[in-house]
Design a protein that fits this description.
Four copies of one chain form a homotetramer. With 493 residues, chain A is an alpha+beta fold. Helix content of chain A is 29%, strand content 26%. The radius of gyration of chain A is 23 Å and the shape is globular. Chain A folds into two domains: 248 residues, Glutamine Phosphoribosylpyrophosphate, subunit 1, domain 1, CATH 3.60.20.10; 178 residues, Rossmann fold. In chain A, the strands form six sheets. Chain A has a seven-stranded antiparallel β-sheet with strand order 3-2-4-1-10-9-11. Chain A has a six-stranded antiparallel β-sheet with strand order 5-6-7-8-12-13. A five-stranded parallel β-sheet of chain A has the order 18-17-21-22-23, sandwiched between helices. Chains A and B meet through helix 1, helix 2, helix 7, helix 11 and strand 18 of A and helix 1, helix 2, helix 7, helix 11 and strand 18 of B.
């Protein structure tokens, strides 16, 4: 539902190499991934400065949406020149949302220049920061991204690849990275591969290929890039001049023994766009299966001669709702898929609210009901998750104003009971509604629906792809954290 | 589809009376009607200036979306004070889109102050302007709205209501107006009632009611207003202190003999939001019927053992597609409603395009396909209209990239062959694709689909509400203009 | 001293004709005249629109200094094209300083297009406005400038020159005007010629001349224009294609019998820049004479063996102080000219003041004392005028902090006792300090000096040029208004 | 003359401690010192964050003038809170003028938080940077200021004062610093004290004192601060709670043996405002003496019966011109001080020039001549220095347009022949006009005057204060650099 009572992914990354308009490609790719972070955007490029006769980096950044930050298109030809670029959509999970943290993450250091873009959260940030600070390092921001820069700059390894590798070995937690320097694009996913990252290629006018890496493949579609593969967990992939010539992508391991992957299952449930490929699979298919399995597990049964109208909370719930409606019908329950909620196309961050932040009002500026669809009917509304419950409550109130006969709710994920330490922005344990009540019935009462069911963890696991060597992180539902939390401050949380 | 190859409505209006935060209400109402005009927004209020001890007007305006124009919320408490407000979302149909034409339309004149907001196009503008200019009148803009101001100011009638009435009698064409002065909100629709306008009321904390008028009732929902009724065609309705006290709304006729109404049928097909009530009826219901009748008229029949997947061009086509899929299924053709196109939530007017305005690219920044839904399947895509055909062509190309087995198209309106002189922004006759080809087959070929059908005018008329005394303007499909076109320049067009 | 406790001139005008970069010339000319109005600036041009194949006008305007309003220099080549331009620096005397009044004053009317720029105040504005409003005219602003537009547009005369002439006959008061239309630059001064306006010419690269008119000739110097002559009082001068070819400037009378001129004497005392020629004479020379005559009339006499240090309030008082010091010395009083006050170069309108508008603080942000010059010495500070006395008081306090032994003050004008109705912005009679006290001694006490003398009206008249047919308006000193005040509201003031 | 052909000071600093509105005081102080740097401004404060219950820093910065950067005054109460502040006006001497270098210089490090402001140039920057970079330090900017931060953070000394002291011992060259941390304001001048820095105090409403340090004391005057003393060369002065209570200022040495000071003599000649106290002496007095000595050395002698008119290039040359005129007269040469050049008050950095950067035009937008003063007379124009000669040449041309009979020039400093490595921005040796010609006569010819004389180094030394233990840096005139230049890149220059 995307109002603030949601889990939030931390950011999108993009890297481009070998394209004459690298920054423009990065711009489109960031726009396509806007849903992963609307707080700020930045693009950095590496280019050859004719005047100074040396390689340099350039960047542009700003708070807000990609389209606004780069509203002046001269920036692409005048400033962000060069054939390599990295970009970032920020949603603040580490570091406050303060201005300083919107900094680009570029550096000139002893081994050259380096621009970095990062998605994920580290679990030993505090420990590493303290250590570096005590040695005299000055941090400009409180982000994990800056930490990577210092770790790389402090490495005594002879090559830049080895410096990066060493830094990634020291950092622990979740990270998907895109890095450019004078001669390559380096992309990596942490040993458990919590966050997604894929590689694609773009055919140029001269018949050659440029390369692109992005968190989600919807970024490839917008620039006509062809999907190649997912970056492996525990992989550092290097794209350089050799790649441009031969198509070969160098591949290195971060740590010697690659563990079982622990993909973030919430990427399939809610974060990613349905038209993206994530961890090698189409999100849309998974999400439909979530809906289907939910109907299997918790069908909504009409009274004799009545009918169930399944409506989605647009747009994230659409596909799952189609799946739910289909299976519910197949189960013999008279069911129709309907469009009962209209989503505004113009909601932005500048909306002005009367008095305090009125959640009911916020929901109203984002959704409106189609009264003819809802009035006097048995409605089941399908949503992807419930966090605090406050927004769901407001949404249910809105739907109630259209006078449904009965109003049930189905959630395509299990109850959220634990915080995420790998990059999702959940409120504290105390604020999660599922920790306040014992049963679905109680939560349903609190939210205001006649009936509420969540998808079980088992059915969830059944819904997601089952590749060899691949497992999922389900910490937010189960409290089982697959990567050790080293920072004490996180542990206490 | 809302890219530039569409018919465009000209503007939304709102009027508020008797509300302590009238401008804030107008702001929300304009936001809810943002789809009717994204070029500029303005809000004017009438208030009592304590310092000068007299009534004055205030306004704020700007190019762009409502949320951006009024991004600084202090404007509502510091500038736009007063309990009466009018507002306007502009899409430029008359007058160039030049800066001057974004002017607010307020005046101090011999009988007091007056702020006006207007939706529609006049058909005798040129004639009236020439006449007034020759008498020494200076026009600041080329809009119809300013013309109303001069007509009212030049009236010699004793009361302000009579001045307005006289002006409306002189002006010919389509207009829905909201006007405020020192003591009332005056709303009106032209004798044929081409454009919509409805009245609602908002319950205040003290138990009393404030009043609101807006082009579409989705504006009422966002501010918790209750729908009262549509302003009649040929009606001038006056809301004043007496209304606040008794609930009675004064009603006057513009011309003595009220003609049969000629509602714009395109409001039902495309302009209005599905969650609005227009001309007294729910848009959603009409649009679903358009889809159903289209399936009756032009079913999409799968081969033996195959299935049809009906997908919508989101979001305007969604309801019609549901209707189409349902009836197609009921007709015995194996059919499923599917979500095959994802619409970006972040498209704005500042998007940067590489080189020339590349329509294919524009479509790509707005839509992406869900490949798993389309690949290898029989797709029928339902859209509301085709204007030039260029955008449809680009969209079809995009869908083709996902490799459907077969790709058919259905349009929930007849071919557009004639320009609109009452407020829609169509290109010239020569640019309309339906004037270039003789048959649906030819147009379908040009657009790139395997099969194309439009809804017939007869089925269209069957789909829309059939109230007594109400008829529709179908000029864009039939070339029959129900209101005389007086200006020669329009005639030639 | 230029802080708000000063008389203020109302605006500068400029007109350019026959120059390929007319708007750029206007821009420089406005910048050179920035001292006459810092509130807003506007430039309008008339040009041939190749696309529409007709003459049109363009303009740009904004609040603030010329350099800021036109900070984006593309405006000159992209928007403000054409070989004729008028421009205006605004200081609001009529009309509130509200946004609406920063409007450019351009119109398309029955006889073509016309852009106007005006300096001065009319004395029958109210009467004329009321009349026009009652006839149905809508005023967008409360300025005299708009009144001219309506008067011209309402004229039934056949030629544009006659229309303008008729309008100028109807308007009464002070006006210096620059007007452009499709084929000429028309400049005029009211029958009494209260405000200045001069004509010059600029040699172009091709050997021909372009023409320029401006309030002050310092505007000519910056663009290398050669001074031709002052526009006469009661003159309408027309510069057109014929002028470009022959150098001949058409001259017309406004009213048949040209009265004795009544030049604003304050232009010499304070408004104009010392490097300008005003009413045909160099301001610097007049101002020096004011200082000399002031010393004759009110020498500052040192005690035996002591010395007088004459310091100026920079920069307006500099020349007069040199004259004063010289004559004081010649009279046998040991006297030196000194620089005792330093003026900040960076004071702008955005200065932030702590708490309320603290006048003492404002003086401090504008001036600082050179303590070594003042400490322990007999200081006579020369200023041009005293209005409310509050700023003088704050300035004297500032100087006192540097511990002069004795502090005298001399003013190069008589006491101001009456408001100006012809374009200077004085406070009301009640606020003028000279109306609160009977003697120079009392005023001196109030301001905080040991001794105060004003220049007498007689000596003032002796100081200014004495041309035939030329007299001066001294209303602010004498209460004698040479042009009848027709508006009752002004009379009461 | 302040157009770009001038030596430029590098920046102004200010520090405030113990004032409830520390940032506002810093703002005024920076405004008063605006002449020392117009490129960018920044203010940082240290405050107690009630919400987080800890000390933090805040800052605001921007390109442009102080008044513009801090135009929104809410910043002072909403962001820049706290009773300690440092501020900086930047003129870029080290580091390019790129955006990154406008960074504020604040840090959180192992010993707490620290905000720094710096004026001057180091001579071993390159050496120190290389060393730190090789150890893994990342530099965000190319400024000396950032270098200080890293040096302090890398110090292993136990107290913050010792850390700072160690850093200052390592850095070599010219620096005047203001630093705040959680509990003190620390100010320092390099062992030779090249740049000025003074301490003052401000009486608060409660009778206590707040403290201020600034490059020039004109910053004290604007905030009613009382001058206490200059910070000594080789001194670190600490102002803390104890100072607030007792008035005692802790004083430390940077290096054990304090060398003879080497004050920048150009501060007296041109940089500082005449109303400031610099290095313990009033600038105005020194500058007058420069003029007097110049007349002694190079009097301008009129022909029999003729007279010399001495005019200044305002405003920097005013006092020296008074001194010159006086002595020239005393030497028996009939001489008058006159105001022959008027300086525009409105010149800003946004001025638009036609075509290329036309120096003649730039001079014209800044100065105008008073023709009546110059025409037909023997003029001697006094200026403070000649750098490239191009601006002088343009200025002389401007004066020539006013037709002086004879035009001589006197310069209150010796010929500039060598670059400055301690913070002044001179062009390279090759661009200095004095390196192109052998004699004053030749330079005078090149500039276009009939006669040119510079002040000799001997007379210059006679003009400046002669305190014990104080000497001056005259490197730009003599090529003798009192502080070793360690960086090779500087040496080559």
């Amino acid at each position: 539902m995307n109002i603030e009572d949601k889990a939030r992914p931390n950011c999108a990354v993009v890297g481009v190499f070998g394209h004459p308009q690298a920054s423009l490609i990065a711009y489109y790719a960031l726009h396509a991934q806007q849903h992963r972070g609307q707080e700020a955007a930045v693009i950095s490029t590496v280019y050859f400065d004719e005047k100074k006769q040396k390689m340099r980096y350039a960047y542009n950044r700003g708070a807000g949406l990609v389209l606004d930050v780069f509203a002046d298109n001269k920036i692409f030809s005048d400033v962000l020149i060069g054939s390599a670029a990295v970009g970032h959509n920020r949603y603040s999970t580490t570091g406050s949302s303060s201005r300083a943290n919107i900094q680009p993450f570029n550096m000139s250091y002893h081994s050259g220049i380096l621009c970095l873009s990062h998605n994920g959260n580290l679990t030993n940030t505090k420990t590493l920061r303290t250590q570096l600070i005590n040695e005299g390092t000055i941090f400009q921001t409180t982000t994990d991204s800056e930490l990577f820069l210092h770790l790389i700059a402090h490495s005594k390894k002879p090559t830049r690849l080895e410096q990066i590798k060493e830094a990634l070995q020291i950092a622990r937690g979740a990270y998907s990275l895109a890095i450019i320097n004078e001669d390559s694009l380096i992309v990596a996913r942490d040993p458990h591969g919590v966050r997604p990252l894929s590689i694609g290629r773009i055919k140029l006018d001269n018949g050659k290929y440029a390369y692109i890496a992005a968190s989600e493949t919807c970024a490839f579609d917008i620039v006509n890039a062809e999907y190649i593969r997912s970056v492996g967990h525990n992989e550092i992939a290097v794209i350089n001049q050799h790649t441009l010539e031969t198509g070969e992508i160098e591949s290195h391991k971060i740590i010697d023994k690659t563990p079982v992957a622990k993909h973030c299952i919430f990427e399939y449930i809610y974060f990613s766009r349905p038209d993206s490929i994530i961890f090698g699979h189409r999100v849309d298919k998974v999400r439909r299966k979530l809906g289907k399995n939910l109907a299997q597990e918790a069908p909504e049964i009409p009274k004799e001669g009545e009918k169930i109208y399944a409506i989605s909370v647009p747009d994230s719930g659409n596909t799952a709702t189609l799946g739910y409606a289909k299976v519910n019908q197949e189960l013999g329950h008279n069911t129709a898929f309907e469009i009962g909620l209209i989503r505004s196309h113009y909601v932005g961050r500048t909306f002005i609210y009367p008095g305090q932040n009125n959640r009911a009002f916020k929901v109203k500026t984002k959704f409106n009901t189609v009264k003819g669809v809802i009035e006097g009917r048995n409605i089941v509304v399908i949503d992807d998750s419930i966090v605090r419950g406050t927004t769901s409550n407001a949404l249910i109130k809105l739907i109630r104003e259209a006078n449904p006969k009965r109003l049930a709710m189905r959630i395509t994920s299990p109850p959220i009971t634990s915080p995420c330490h790998y990059g999702m922005d959940f409120p504290s344990k105390e604020e999660l509604i599922a920790n306040h009540y014992k049963t679905e019935k109680e939560i349903g009462n609190a939210i205001g629906v006649d009936d509420l069911h969540y998808l079980s963890v088992e059915k969830l696991m059944e819904s997601v792809p089952n590749d060899e060597g691949i497992d999922y992180c389900t910490a937010c539902f189960t409290g089982i954290y697959p990567i050790e939390i080293e920072d004490n401050s996180l542990k206490k949380k």
